[in-house]
Amino acid sequence: MKELTIISGKGGTGKTSILGAFATLAGKSVICDCDVDAANLHILLQPNIKETHDFYGEKKAEIVPELCTNCGKCEELCQFQAIQQGQINPYACEGCAVCYHVCPAGAVNIKPHLSGQWYISETKWGPMVHAKLGIAQGNSGLLVNMVRKKAREIAREQSLPLIISDGPPGIGCPVISSLAGTDMALIVTEPTVSGIHDLERIVKVAAGFGCVSAVCINKYNLDEYNCRYIEDLAERLQVPVIGRIPYDLTVTEAVLQGIPVTTLGKGDAQGPIQELWQQVGNLLGVR
Ligand code: SF4
Ligand code: SF4
């Protein structure tokens, strides 16, 4: 079994559209949405949810009013200003448990907090594991880890040779979780100043995991000067550019329709996406 993770240093490069297209080209694979903070792959793949599971990612404090003597000690010592007038703000509470330890009345409990949900679904192109983290909830790295673990289990159970994961943007904890143990990182960038800046950072992060890395320049023809700059940068960073996809309004049309662009069967991006998929298959050793 091989794992491909599609990442981007910044959001909005078209990573999810490319993954949606790959899902249709791969034959049956396990599809995994690791962008749990802002999941949107389901918009393109329209999964039919089969199982829903709760995710308890954090702990939060709770005050038992009947036991509280209003001494104010917890409010004074909470470093996150999460307690005001005897009430805990769950969005501000970091679950550090200082209040629990200092409370002289034993009035504070620290409890697991429901932070989101994860799902096992079916799509036309194979099983999908995805998740939704609640607003202002933390520990997305742990949730990504759970989603990937489930995707591997399903791949083993159904003897599927490939897992395709949509990684989160950025270089933080959920990205690290998305890359750990993957066979290949496909980095999707775009020819903008922020695209160039973030490409360098994400290439260095991916290099730390020892997986095969390659770059795809999406919307390359919007700025050919920046596109050449990215090609030079990639050469300096010793990572190959294996795809150049032109700006194509058909991709937007597909997003608006909620379908992978490949199912439209038209537009300038079709051929380059298929060539990119061939290159990925060569590097991963899957067909
Ligand atoms: S657990 Fe920590 S952050 Fe939360 S209310 Fe108590 S002291 Fe504040
Ligand atoms: S430290 Fe305990 S008793 Fe004092 S205000 Fe906080 S919860 Fe109430």
From TrEMBL:
Gene Ontology MF terms: iron-sulfur cluster binding; metal ion binding
Listed Pfam families: CbiA, Fer4
Keywords: Iron, Iron-sulfur, Metal-binding
Keyword Secreted in record: no
InterPro entries: 4Fe4S_Fe-S-bd, 4Fe4S_Fe_S_CS, CobQ/CobB/MinD/ParA_Nub-bd_dom, P-loop_NTPase
Keyword Secreted recorded: no
Transmembrane stretches, start-end: none
Name of protein: (4Fe-4S)-binding protein
Organism: Desulforamulus ferrireducens
